Predict the structure.
Amino acid sequence: MSGADDKRVDMTTGAISPKLLELSWPLVAGNLLQTVYNLADMFWVGRVGPDAVAAVSLMFPTVFLFISVALGINAAAVAVVSQHIGAGNERRAENAVAQSILLALAAAVILAVGGYAVRHPLVSLIGAEGRVYTEAISYLEVIFLAIPFTFLFFVFRAVLRAAGDTKTAMWLVVVSAGLNVVIDPFFILGWGPLPALETQGAAIATLISRALAAAAGLYVLIDGGWGIRLRLPDLRPDPRTLRRLLDVGYPAAADGLVRSLAAVVFAGLVARFGKAPTAAYGIGIRLMSVTWTVSGAVGQAAATGVGQNLGAGSPDRAARVTWVGTAGTMAVLTAAGALAFVFPDVAMGIFVDDPAVIAEGVTLMRIIAPFWLFFGGLMVVQGGFRGAGSTRAAFALSLLSRWVMRIPVAWLLAYHLAWGPSGLWWSFSFSAVASFAVGVAWFRRATWTEDVVERERQAGSEPTTGDDADPEAVDD
């Protein structure tokens, strides 16, 4: 595994800031590419018209509702794999990789079939009507076909990150997002010999790019020269490892479900105010994804660093990784939020030329952009919890942020106090500040320092090292 080791970042030794930067920048680059893909989707769909933009805007949180399960599996994979690597249990880490893939594939097939079966009542429930409803259905039907490839793509990236190889994880995003950006206009607008498929074309481009990226990820893991190896015999179901992944993963999946359900409900609150606020919200969310580009990446890097250090028995260093990442992220997002606050009309005008949508988008950005740093800071703190395997704490923070501090406040301000769409945007900012304060206080209590590897030792399973160790013999 010497070639793989050369590609890894070991967060257990040396100065934290340079190591965190080395681990983070490929993730920032990968997330930026994913953001470019999301923005390109909206840009080309915007050439179709406001109905198409509104349809994709409404479906964005709906699709995330299903993908949130993959995020739970990812969190479990990162916690278990990174802690095994920090403890020197290479063979166990490889077995956890295989079991994560099995779990992801099984969940994806179930969700894709179930989602396709309920697509019509689901879109109606969100509040889409007329042409927006038709466009949303045609988009969603293809996206469900892409879910198995999306789940595999996500879990391949997660296990590479857990091993400390974020550069290869970045290249998988390059394959997926880069291809998607290139082929979007051919399928959406009918460039070349292809017919103009509008919103369905955006979904087809996603399906093709995710399938090819999943194939590339499978090759990388089977080859084993990029950070960690997938051994095909390990794809036999291992009940003990699967239970461990489920134990760590189900709160993270619930976390994703809570976030995505809140996004669906929030989109429904926005949709009641009409087409212009709905389109502005969809564009604004994608512009806000600049915060996720940085904070999501640093949060992922922090999860890897926390996991490795807990596996190595260094909880104090694990905490320092999280605080360093939080401070750096908030500094960057302060500058990004200032730019969005000063030039919101320019940002919105890139995607639409409808004056009503731009005007609503300017209001949205001026209310939310100054608080981007708090959104980002919370994401890094949650990453620290997830790396420790304390996914229940991260889940509780998401529940608090969205269902206690955002949705009720949004209803109160927008409907009860009749602030209109501005009340919805202010609820975002309020929830960001309040939930960040709670997250920092909770993390400082250090109730997350008992790692999953330590729990295995207490259960009587001493870790075994060596590439040739039998994972079943270790676990039993």
Q: What stands out?
A: The two ends are 25 Å apart (CA to CA). Confidence is low (pLDDT under 50) at residues 453-476. Residues 20-453 form one domain.
